[in-house]
Amino acid sequence: MVLSATEESLIEAVRMLPPEEAGKVLAWAKQLADLGGGRRIEWSDSWSDDDLREAALASLDRFEQQEREGR
Q1: How many H-runs (helices) and E-runs (strands) does the chain carry?
Q2: Residue ranges per structural domain of the chain
């Protein structure tokens, strides 16, 4: 199996953590994978205009929700 540079750097970062913290990272990654519903994730270091627009709208929605909840 050949790993990409991103995958190799992720593995290296997890290896540098204490075992308990590495376990937390792995559990978190599994939760994210479950949320993805089996969809393949496309790795990229850049954001498209659509990505930026979606992120901005999600941020504004979240801010408005928190304001309504009085947080």
Answers
A1: 3, 0
A2: 5-39+47-69
